[in-house]
Specification:
248 residues; mainly alpha; three-stranded antiparallel sheet; 12 helices; 3 strands; 2% strand; globular
């Protein structure tokens, strides 16, 4: 029996106005890096693996890796396996029937199973339970909670272990009756907790700037005014976030 090969992607729909609007703030190298990522995503049916990304960077040596990292951070999503995707490209490929819909669903299911069976996720849930009062059903059963916890992690980027820890800590010192059940925090149907963006405190802002300034000074970065300093701080945190994502 002959092996069936998937149809190669030789074209894609390039929305010029959308591209111009999305990249107006980018320099020439960043724009070209963005284009090569778009092309690679279409070649790979919507998803770029970490291996494909490394190959792309080797083929385009004139584009520094830092430029690729910056563009990926702004426009691309990365999953726990280090695969990169872009919602606009996925949408366009779905319209043209060229996206690997089944493969993606299978990958999502596989990733979810890995999360549920992960010692790391179980440990995180146990830490969250331990932070909650043991009375009045504030904690959640591990079997049920682990499934809910992992599902939320997969569904919404705003839902993170650190975010839920911050929410629980915000009830410290107010008495057990002020703590919502952990299951309520997970569901957050009214947008009271992790679905709502939290305004950083003045202490958070000070720590954010102080840490970045220390790093910039240690690495011999110089600035002549606040605007330059702020741009360097933003770039530092952007690169740090991208680096953390690549280590997963």
């Amino acid at each position: 029996m002959k092996k069936k090969y998937e149809t190669s992607v030789y074209y894609y729909t390039h929305f010029i106005e959308s591209f111009i609007a999305d990249t107006v703030h980018l320099n020439v190298l960043e724009k070209y890096a963005y284009l090569t990522l778009i092309w690679e995503a279409h070649r790979k049916r919507g998803v770029i693996s970490s291996k494909s990304l490394e190959s792309l960077q080797r083929r385009n040596k004139e584009i520094p890796i830092e430029v690729y990292n910056s563009v990926i951070f702004e426009f691309w999503d990365v999953d726990e396996d280090g695969n990169y995707s872009n919602s606009k490209i996925t949408s366009d490929m779905n319209v043209t029937k060229l996206h690997k819909e089944r493969s993606k669903k299978g990958a999502d299911t596989t990733n979810f199973k890995k999360m549920v069976n992960s010692d790391k996720r179980l440990d995180e849930l146990r830490q969250l339970n331990k932070m909650m009062p043991s009375t009045n059903n504030k904690r959640i059963a591990e079997a049920e909670g682990l499934v809910k916890y992992c599902k939320k992690l997969q569904e919404d980027k705003r839902f993170t272990f650190e975010r839920i820890k911050q929410i629980i800590k915000s009830f410290d010192g107010r008495g057990n009756s002020y703590y919502p059940a952990l299951s309520v925090i997970f569901n957050d149907t009214d947008g009271k907790f992790w679905k709502v963006a939290q305004e950083p405190t003045s202490e958070d802002k000070l720590e954010y700037v102080s840490k970045a300034e220390k790093w910039l000074t240690e690495n011999n970065y110089n600035w002549s005014n606040l605007t330059e300093r702020n741009d360097l701080i933003k770039q530092h945190y952007k690169e740090e976030t991208v680096w953390k994502q690549t280590q997963k």
